[in-house]
Specification:
The chain is an alpha/beta fold and 147 residues long. Helix content is 19%, strand content 40%.
């Protein structure tokens, strides 16, 4: 932190804006999603997850891998979950393979995702332990709807 006299706040703000204008390009403000690799839905298996877990422990310096999965369709359409419906649960498919997916914070995109014919997702495959069963699941970080 720092201290500043109240009378100098406006000058400070102007100086900060001038520095930002000279150093920040508009493209720097476009959010970017990092992916580690592409993967086909058919390649996501318990064996694949076991191999990926050899990269653990995951954390700040070693984040869980993120994969791009392209041209996925709905096997079951999304449904809003969570106290305020802020998250989406769905089942995605490609060919004969299908997998459950959770998209935390995507509740506001429910109608767009529901209408999508296909979509590309950036996700981390994981095991969901639910009701004494282990199920494969995608933890979705971003979605691009294909029109």
């Amino acid at each position: 932190g720092f201290r500043i006299e109240a009378s100098k706040i406006d000058d400070f703000r102007k100086a900060c804006l001038a520095i930002a204008k000279n150093r920040i390009h508009p493209t720097d403000l476009i959010p970017a999603v990092t992916i580690d690799s592409t993967i086909d839905l058919s390649a996501i298996t318990f064996s694949t997850l076991k191999t990926l877990n050899r990269l653990s422990p995951f954390g700040l310096g070693n984040p869980k891998p993120r994969f791009l999965l392209s041209n996925l369709s709905h096997y079951y359409p999304p449904r809003a979950v969570g106290i305020d419906g802020n998250h989406l649960k769905m089942t995605l498919s490609s060919g004969n393979k299908r997998i459950d997916a959770i998209a935390f914070g995507f509740g506001g995109f429910y109608h767009d995702i529901q209408r999508a014919e296909t979509m590309d997702v950036v996700a981390t495959p994981e095991v969901n332990n639910w009701n004494n069963r282990e199920l494969l699941q995608l933890n979705i970080h971003d979605i691009r709807i294909n029109h």
